[in-house]
Please model this.
Amino acid sequence: MSSAARIVLVAVLVIAGLPTTGSVAQADTAALARSLGELVASFEGKAGILVVDPLTPQPLYATNADTEVITASLYKVAVMLHAEALVEAGTLAYRDRITIQDDDITEDGSFFEAGTTLTIDQALEAMITYSDNGAALAFWHLFGGPAINATLQANRIERLRIAETSAEDSVATPRAVAELFLAMARRQLVSAAASERMLERLQRQRINDRLPSFLPAGAAVAHKTGNLLGLIHDAGIVFTPRGPKVVVAMTWDTWEEPANQLIASVGSAVYSAVLDLPTNARYAVNKVYPADVGATEVVTFRLTNAGVRPWTARGPQAVNVVYDIRDASGKLLGLSAAPHPTQLGANPGQSFEVSLPVKVPAQLGDHTLRIGLADANGLALGPLGVATVTTTLRVHPVYLMTTVMKLSTRMHMGEATMVQVAQFPTAAGRGKACTLTLGYRFLENASGRIVGEGSSPLGEMSAEREGGVYFTSIVAPRSSGGYRLELVVREGEVQVSPITTMGVGIAGPRTYGGNETRALPRVIAPRLSTPIRSVTP
Model:
């Protein structure tokens, strides 16, 4: 291989963070390009830089991006990729074991002696976080270079080639290294789960004298270093306050100190840059969306194009709405994607109404509904920093009716108040006959503590009628003050209507007959009320 072919470059792939205004973004993109150019120009060695936003097809900045170079220890990321592909396929398990052999120990050194047996998980950890050569060569001998290269090709990583014999070097272009980490950042390397595992392992990196060196304490970086004589590299994903940014940095014809300074400066420049997302959104959603258990409910909300490029109904700039549903413990209950309305045509800053069909899970209760965007290929853009929004999906039994409750909101301690209930059958309740009761409870406004509750007979819902008006009564608790009253219709113990909530005030007992010290006798609630008239919903 010629000396020109044995070059290693500095490459930077940026995933932009949260949005600012378009003018600021444009200024900062130009400023970042100028800053990186000045760094390369003043570097005591040779270097190249590539800056790419994964939401746009063209790089933001590029120099020498397609020159083939020696990877040094960056090849170990490709070895990890192949191992994770086997784990995902079920042909390899983290608990399986691998033994360091004599030919795995070279002049480059290792933390392990020949004969050491490790689990696959332990060997991957040593290879990535400590850059152990013995573990890496044990994997290379186990898998074989051709198999690793086939996995790279299957994941569309072009021009990154692992050595297939000990006489060869592993080589890559900066663009190929950028593609590897970009696929990982997008959760598309092997699978979303495998990408997450690789990212977590790379975040445990122990060699942190380059990309993370100038970053604030606690800044997360998932990266891998590489060193050979005259070659200093670092590559990975920097998790900035504005979203993840992928940085691949390689240098050649240089020494360790100036190369480390350059790479650290590149990481700092990318971390601090404010780059607007080409695709982003704002959402105006309800706090709660009631939904019938197991049904498909249409969730409506307002969506605004908050990016810097227009959305189209079709083509590469089209966007989709995606969602997932999780219970209180965070367990995933359901997810799906639904295309935007055909007539989208939203320019930056424009808003429109979205009707999103949501498949409601079979579990009752309050669940978290998260809504976000995906690109034209269905790739969820949330991991790339595009905004998402969460709201509550309140899953209830299938209601038999809707109701309108009327009653006086001024009550008296321990006394009955008449309630008028107008009910209108839903599609599920139409033609159904059942005996109804009215459940009620009084709650403290601040704490939600129940201070009184009960139920009253309501009447019969007829299969022949399309609705009815019922009268019954509820008894106020023996506590004065302001409370929240909840009313609900039940068939036995089953809730068959939405809950009606209102604020009520409870005063002291009423008096009569001019004797202010004598309380009004307690009113006994009727045993059963029946509709006095039919109504049409």
About this structure: Residues 401-519 form a domain with the Immunoglobulin-like fold (CATH 2.60.40.10).
